[in-house]
Amino acid sequence: MITIEKFFGLAEICIRVLLMPGHSKATIVSMAVVTVVITSLLHEGLGHGVTAWLRGDVVRELTSNHLDSVRRDRLVDAGGTIVNLVAGAICLFASAFAHRVNTRYFLWFLGSVNLLLGAGYFLFSGVLGLGDWADLIRGFPHAAPWRVGMAFLGAAFYFFFVRLIAITLHPFVPRRSDYNIVARLPYLAACAFWCLAGAFDPLGFRLMLLSTIPASFGGMSGLLWADSLIPGAKPEEELVVERSPIWWTVAIVLGCAFLLTVARGIEFHQPQT
Fold first, then answer.
1. Does 273 fall in a domain?
2. Range of the domain at 117
3. How many Å from the N-terminal Cα to the C-terminal Cα in the chain?
4. Residue 272: inside a domain, yes or no?
5. CA torsion 246→252→257→263, rounded to 10°?
6. In this predicted structure, what is the pLDDT of residue 271?
7. In 3D, which of 188, 191, 203, 119 has the Cα closest to residue 157?
8. Cα–Cα distance between 260 and 128 in angstroms, integer?
9. In a domain, 199, yes or no
């Protein structure tokens, strides 16, 4: 569990690493912001929204944290997580073939976040009985075994994904101290931006407590301890995230646009009956 003391401890670490040479911290933070925007749109827009549209449902509102539609649909509930898992697997696989170092790192982080959030959702819904997958099994006979199964499945997938992202991150961590920069720093930046977006949500602070904070701080928390699973041998290649004003610009423009539109809620007009 992420306590206030741990949060400020992470913030202190990140401030210190911002002053260290090597990886471009500004570029990494920028990529974290872009990752949040893409991941949110994948989950809420493509996963829930497009699935609802294909199912003939009527979408009423889309935000960074929820999608409101006219009727309940189990496939719509499942769509967000499924899209995150598929997108995460594609991005992590593609990162191994990227020629540019910055592109490789961005695909790694985008893939890692989507995979961890996807697996974490099973665990979250199974343990607490909240969220999309809890809604999906609501009304099923023998709900308790379903929740236990989801929790165990989520935990197994989560550990597998953490192990996978630790291995694929290895070239960026020739020294253990580099891990604070390439994993813990973007984790904190992504969590902060996600919560900032959640603060604009029309459903208010309650949704942030039940969805935004658990999904960000909890769902991505594997990034805090994946370094324990990184291979001990020195990597064959040592990669450094380079300084990139283009990434800074993209993050500022995309982040501001996201906060002013999706985070505040996009309402869709319902067809006249």
1. no
2. 4-266
3. 48
4. no
5. 130
6. 56
7. 119
8. 32
9. yes
Give the pLDDT band of residue 252 (cuts 50, 70, 90). very high
DSSP the chain: ---HHHHHHHHHHHHHHHTSSSS-HHHHHHHHHHHHHHHHIIIIIIIIIIHHHHTT--EEEE-SS-EEESS--HHHHHHHHHHHHHHHHHHHHHHTT-SSHHHHHHHHHHHHHHHHHHHHHHHHHHHHS-SHHHHHHTT-SSHHHHHHHHHHHHHHHHHHHHHHHHHHHGGG-SSTTHHIIIIIHHHHHHHHHHHHHHHT-TT-HHHIIIIIHIIIIITTTHHHHGGGGS-SSPPSS---PPP-HHHHHHHHHHHHHHHHTTTT-EE-PPPP-
Residue 129: pLDDT band (50, 70, 90) is: low
| pLDDT tens digits, one per residue of 53-87 | 888 888 888 898 888 887 777 787 788 889 999 99
Q: What is the dihedral of CA 188, 189, 191, 195, to 10 degrees?
A: 140
Rounded to whole angstroms, the Cα distance separating 42 from 97 reads 22
* Closest alpha carbon to 266 in 131, 34, 66: 66
Query: pTM of the entire structure?
Result: 0.88
Integer-rounded Cα radius of gyration of the chain: 19
Residue whose C-alpha is closest to residue 115's, from 144, 137, 95, 145:
95
- Number of domains present in the structure of the chain: 1
Phi-psi group of 201: left, alpha or beta (phi > 0 → left; psi -120 to 50 → alpha; rest → beta):
beta
pLDDT beyond 80 at 173: yes
Please answer whether residues 32 and 189 qualify as being in contact, where contact means their C-beta atoms are separated by less than 8 angstroms.
yes
